[in-house]
Amino acid sequence: MILDKNIIAGHNEKELAKHQQQFNFLSEQTGQAAAILEKLKAFQVAIPSWALGTGGTRFGRFAGAGEPATLEQKIEDVGLLHALNQSSGAISLHIPWDIPTNATAIKELAAQHGLQFDAMNSNTFQDQPNQAHSYKFGSLQHTDKAVRKQAIEHNIEVINHGVNLGSKSLTVWLSDGSSFPGQLNFRKAFQRTLESLQEIYAALPADWKIFVEYKAFEPNFYSMTVGDWGQSLLFANKLGDKAYTLVDLGHHLPNANIEQIVALLLNEGKLGGFHFNDSKYGDDDLTVGSINPYQLFLIFNELVEGLDAKGLNHATDLGWMIDASHNIKDPLEDLLQSVEAIQVAYAQSLLVDRAALEAAQGNNDVALAQEILQQAYRTDVRPLVAEARLQLGGALSPIKLFREGKVRAALIGERGEKSVATGL
Ligand code: AOS
Ligand code: ZN
Ligand code: ZN
């Protein structure tokens, strides 16, 4: 174990005095630290297996050093994150990148690190070696029934892997669509996709959910068959109670009001969960909270309001996942930043004076409503998030300890400089 309890405790000892001062100040200022701490401590964010290596772009990939080459090593990486922040207690796997050849052993290894298996992800956007049919023109939407069948069977295989690991959900992201006008009959493509999804849905265990992820563009550049939340919601509604829409923050057209989308999906009982990331232009390129933390806060503000209104559990009733990977940072540092950004937005949204906001809304007091939100957003809640980590046995300053503890160097020592992660 690269980071044992003593190393973390030693780090915390050095940081404690300064932390205590900041935390006490914040507690006094907000007067509700205890309640927020309990919620923060219960809140876990799943780490995607494919974000543990440096991501590439179509212009190339600059692999990091000591990346996890096997599923076991990916679990070890998430175990390190979880040891540092005590808030990354789950991993989301992608098949066929992460096929668990011995599910029992993999489950045991994950349990040793305190990890659970979050949503399983299927892959029908790439052709795999020895695959009979190509996904060049789509998978679940394909005009050829044999291609659709292959994609359906793959998804069912992913469910089966997930069952063996104790996962409870399947995320389906489709690259299906068209790149040129005239290429596709939209109505028929939708219908074929629906029928394929229905076959996958029929194979879902009773206590599973299926998340239908949407994306506005790329790799198809004229139409995407699940291109926005409306299309996803149509599929989810037609499929049934176990089907939900998944919101990836980077998958909207510019300036979309994501917080409003989220509020309405949640109200319909059809919000399944999130792929958190941030972007300046599109997709899931950047670290959560790195570009638009105010948007993230506004999303959490709707989530907390809606979950509470419906009597739902913040920690367990939605799927909280990260989906981001970029080229130039150490992926583990990047993920520590992402988890912290999510926790900060969550804590800020818990600070919002709900009663006052409701009153301001009722009185159409626009300026006051805005003041109430910004009062919460402009509060530096990082000491609260750090205190939650401390109470759970994590590190007060995870990235600092990651660096001082020379974690990457230790991983390179174990795996070698040239070890490269499978995946994107
Ligand atoms: C693709 O753009 C989607 O965000 C997927 O959720 C995810 O990134 C993919 O499944 C991993 O390759
Ligand atoms: Zn995604
Ligand atoms: Zn994406």
Report on this model:
Helix 3 (71-85) links the parallel strand 1 (46-48) and strand 2. The strands form 3 sheets. The protein has a 6-stranded parallel sheet with strand order 4-5-7-9-10-11. The chain starts with a helix and ends in a 9-residue tail after the last helix. 49% of the residues lie in helices and 9% in strands. It is globular, with a radius of gyration of 22 Å. The mean pLDDT is 96. With 424 residues, it is α/β, with parallel strands linked by helices. D-allose binds next to loops. InterPro entries: L-rhamnose_isomerase (IPR050337), Xyl_isomerase-like_sf (IPR036237), Xyl_isomerase-like_TIM-brl (IPR013022). Residues 100-285 form the Xylose isomerase-like TIM barrel domain.
Shape: globular
Distance between the termini: 27 Å
Q: Ranges with pLDDT <50 over ≥5 residues?
A: none
Task: Give the number of DSSP strands.
Answer: 11
Classify the helix fraction into a percent range. 40-55%
Q: Please identify the structural class as seen in this structure.
A: alpha/beta
In round numbers, the mean pLDDT is: 96
Note the beta-strand portion: 5-15%
Task: Record the strand order, biggest sheet.
Answer: 4-5-7-9-10-11
Which series of helices and strands comes N to C?
A: HHEHEHEEHEEHEEHEHEHEHHHHHH
The biggest beta sheet, please?
6 strands, parallel
Number of helices: 15
Ions, cofactors, ligands: which are bound?
A: D-allose, zinc ion
Task: Using the CA coordinates, give the radius of gyration.
Answer: 22 Å
Topology:
Layout: H1 5-30, H2 33-42, E1 46-48, H3 71-85, E2 90-92, H4 103-112, E3 116-117, E4 120-121, H5 145-165, E5 169-173, E6 177-178, H6 186-202, E7 209-213, E8 223-224, H7 229-239, E9 243-248, H8 258-267, E10 271-276, H9 293-309, E11 319-322, H10 331-351, H11 354-362, H12 366-377, H13 382-392, H14 398-404, H15 407-415
Parallel strand pairs: 1-2, 2-3, 4-5, 5-7, 7-9, 9-10, 10-11
Antiparallel strand pairs: 6-8
Helix pairs in contact: 1-13, 2-10, 2-13, 3-10, 5-6, 8-9, 9-10, 11-12
The chain binds D-allose and zinc ion (ZN) (2 copies).
